[in-house]
Amino acid sequence: MPPRRKPYYITDRKVIVDYSSVFCDTTAGLLNSELFAEVVRRFVRRVVRRQDTVYELLTHGFPGDNQKQMTVGLVNIFRLLATHSAREISGMAPEYQRMLHDQVRFIELKDLLYNFWLKLERIAYMEVPKRDTEINDDLHYAQFVKANEDLKNVILQTQRRISDNLEGNLRSFRQMPAFANLSMLVRKIDWDCPNKLSFLRQIPFVRNTLIFPPLILYPASNTRKGSFEPISKVTPSMMDINPAEWFCFPAKVGDLLAFVYFHRDFSSLALSLANLFEMAGKNDLKKKRPDMIILFGVDPKALPGSTGYHYMKDEDVYMGLVAHKEEMEYFGYFKKITLTLHNLEMMKRGHLPVHGAMVSMELKDGGTANVAIIGDSGAGKSETLEALRTLADEHIRDMKIIFDDMGSLRIAKDGAVLGFGTETGAFVRLDDLTPGYAYEQIERSVFMNPHMKNARLVLPVSKYKHITKGYPVDFLMYANNYENVEKGGKALDFFDDMNKALAVFSDGARQAKGTTDETGLVHTYFANPFGAIQEKEKHAKIATKTFKALFSNGVKVGQIRTRLGVPGYEQEGPKAASLELFEVIRARK
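Predicted structure:
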């Protein structure tokens, strides 16, 4: 018998709710729910622990510092406030008179409780019953959206009724997402599951998501450490999970299929993948076997480190594993374990994975150019291309992003080198974007720790048809972020010797920007710690073959000095480099 999911799961930072188990369509239903009582209980515990400004009010209204009595009393008061004024309640229930007598402080308590709820990461899901799996997906989606709207409206209506009975008629209203700020419709899928992984059959797949941007998340970690290393085998203890606590996000990583299984504690980050990867459709999943399977949130004691991967040869699938640790609560781990496995699969197929960004530009004067810039995290590749788009906007008719972080170069039958992408979105640093850019994209973005160094946002930037089409490479540049440009000097230079080019790309020099735990000038083989280092010998052979094809086809291969790692040039460096690149592109026509 499959394990049963709890109607809700709540911690000090997040709450995950099953629509069907806790759904209520009235104020009375909401205030009588177990979830409301649990939220009040946790709020009271926090007030007592921190001795917040309303602590004295609670101890005055409920002498004895009994948290259970405080919780029950507050729940009852709010139930009464839904239909009666504070004065009426004092007459009906004298035991609450002391709490309601200080109206100003009780209003403050009410607002603190509401804000306590709003500051939780609020995630909701609706699971399609097994008997309904053949019913049209559109019908389930419509019910899913309506349920979220209905619950949001019930909470708003309840909060406003209580406020009216305490303060009088409200004059200003805020239509905030008072219920969930992330939601998912889930269902079980009949996929080609290896017997060794049969326990995964019980875990439902995310089929639709609702995100209410601008969504601001505060994950426990803000940088990624180290790389993902191979492990000799996947043991039973690594796969010892409770399916009732897990979900699966099916992602199309370029033309590969990834099943990203995640523990519920990482739900908000996992659902943010909807802004980064194309979600796989029903036809992509049924009776299919993925190219990679990721388990995010496994028992830390089962892994030799915090992360790892293994190629399951008999099943012909890569398995990625990430431990259930607070320090792994960073979106970069979701993104990079997936892309590491993508890169390993690309090399298995004889293609060259590249860590960088690529765009296809069509100029208004008729010229075209497909530009790829290679570089590790913080090298300035994405920032330079964004500056190019902004500064040369009057000259560009169209600009398609092929990849913004990871892609692959493949040699076509005619010998041309084509660029393919992996992501339809981008995970970018706020500090390195043009001022105001994040706000231009605010209605589509997920912000992560915007108050901290290495603040990030995840936003859609491209279409799946563009990243999987395959565009011939015209320019391949290495992003040099550490060298300054002398007065009158150039930010760009091109190689006339393939071996010199390979030496610069292979050296992978970069000034660390605080996106990982690295500091100073660092060197990463081919600027790609995500598979290239782990399979260096295989990668080197493919790189040599690919660079021969690039030079044979007359592709301009060089380096671009973005100066993103040079103090004082974080904004100006990419701008200057992009202008110089643009002039070279125009001259090429």
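Summary: The two ends are 67 Å apart (CA to CA).
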